[in-house]
Amino acid sequence: MRRAVVASSATVAGIVLLLSLKPHEAATTPAALGTGTGSSGTGSSGSPGTGAGTDAGAASPSAGTGGAASGTVRTVTGSAANTRFGPVQVKVTLDGTKITKVEAVEYPTHDRRDQEINSYAVPLLNQEALDAQSADIDVVSGATFTSQGYATSLQSALDQAAGR
Amino acid sequence: MSVSPSALPASSVRVVRPAAGPGDPLRHAEHVMGTVFSFTVRDAGRGARRAGVEAALRRAVDRLHRIDQVFSPYWRDSQVSRLARAETTLADCDPELAEVLERCREVAAETDGWFTAHPGGRLDPSGWVKGWAVEEAVRLLRTAGATDLSVSGGGDVQCVGGPWRVGIAHPTRPGALTAVVAGHDLAVATSGTAERGPHILDPHSGRPATGLRSLTLVGRGLARTDAWATAAFAMGPRRGLAWAEARPGVEALAVLPDGRKRWTSGFPALVAPGLPPGRALRD
Fold first, then answer.
1. CATH number, position A65
2. A125·B17 Cβ contact <8 A
3. What's the mean per-residue pLDDT of chain B?
4. Is B278 on the interface with A (CB under 8 A)?
5. I want to staple A47 with a disulfide (CB 3.0 to 4.6 A). Which of A22, A57, B104, B123 is the partner?
6. What is the domain extent for residue A86?
7. pLDDT tens-digit profile of A85-129?
8. Which residue did the predictor score with more confidence, A143 or B8?
9. Where does the pLDDT of residue B225 fall: very low under 50, low under 70, confident under 90, or very high at 90 and above?
10. Can you tell me where the transmembrane regions are (chain B) (predicted)?
């Protein structure tokens, strides 16, 4: 059953990751396109000169030195865009001014970090109860106690322990 | 009962730990709003700085009593109570009441109606007010320069700075924890039946929600996080967790009626390190 929880939460994570990346990719791709079009418009392999184009400037067209003539295949790499999951960088392949391929050259390596986190966090979460004494906590979150309930609460114990 | 909060003597602020040495945390517990608010300011400093933080703490406590006077549905003469009985109009009330009701409408929209300022059909914006009151207290402490502090409003916690280790109370074992989260600038709100029984109403059926023992949300601002926790608790485990999963910046931990736990995909990243499983209690 526990495995099922973890597996389903990992699946959800994957879905959320994909969904969350979607708009960011959409935002990144036009930036990469913008720089690509800029360089083809000037007909030189020089710097695209757009604000987001520092990395793209280094990634000069790999094929076709002049113009945007149809049939000229070249690739342009956009600058890395930060998403909440890490940097995302997109490489666009153009045939003339037509996009033929978009691929991610850098994407968040969250799987490994997730594994590290899960290796210590999930066993803790799966514990039925944790001993407050050894948890070294600063403050407690729980269902709202009444003014009377506070007297026997863990928060009251923390408040009093600090007063001594 | 009608106390004029401005008439509260400064001595009503009991500083639990007086300035015993340089840099000691300033702590205080205040009975208000039918519960207890606990304050910890780690960087209260000493001398003039400490005096400034203590003055801000008194203003924060004053502010809490004032908010209670206006917003409590338990005080017969509060503006909320009078408005609920149609003895006054919103226009004649404190302008903050209209603002609070607007925030409640926002949360209702964000939660597809699972949060309401009219639980059981009667005006009661408490689901927003307590978390907001904590945020107000935090704001006042920050004006005195405090940057490392936590305020708990009866078990709903706003941390500033950090890291802060926040224990999540075990819903059926008094004194034990079900998890510990750690981080900076966290808001941690828990809804559950442990302290006051099944009191959160499902706004759609009008009956108490019973699908969960407790539900904890971790977010940034406590007013919203707390109101969302109330809504997600009413939703029940399946819908509540799916809702939290879909909302950026919020993670959830749910304890089911049979004691099993469920959490959103980002929750494990919030779990406090440094507590080996071997030190956890056995079943």
1. 3.90.1010
2. no
3. 91
4. no
5. A57
6. 25-161
7. 556 677 788 888 887 877 766 655 556 777 788 788 988 998 999
8. A143
9. very high
10. none
Whether the bond between B125 and the residue before it is cis, its omega within 30 degrees of 0, is no
In-domain check, residue A4? no
Burial class of residue B1, CB neighbours in 10 A (0-12, 13-18, 19+): exposed
Please report the ipTM that was assigned to this predicted complex.
Answer: 0.88
DSSP codes, A72-124: -EEEEEPPPEEETTEEEEEEEEEETTEEEEEEEEE---HHHHHHHHHHHHHHH
Between residues A108 and A13, the one the model is more confident about = A108
B37 phi-psi bin (left φ>0, alpha ψ -120 to 50, beta other): beta
Residue A90 forms part of a structural domain: yes
Q: How many domains in chain A? A: 1
- In chain A, residues 75-94 whose CB comes closer than 8 Å to chain B: 84
User: Would you say the pTM of this structure is higher than 0.80?
Assistant: no
Of the residues B39, B281, B282, the best mutation for testing chain A's interface (the one with the most A CB atoms within 10 Å of its CB) is: B281
Where do runs of H (alpha helix) occur along chain B? 47-71, 79-84, 95-110, 126-143, 222-235, 237-246
In a domain, A140, yes or no: yes
A63 is a domain residue: yes
Residues 12-31 of B with CB under 8 A from A: 16-17, 25, 27, 29, 31
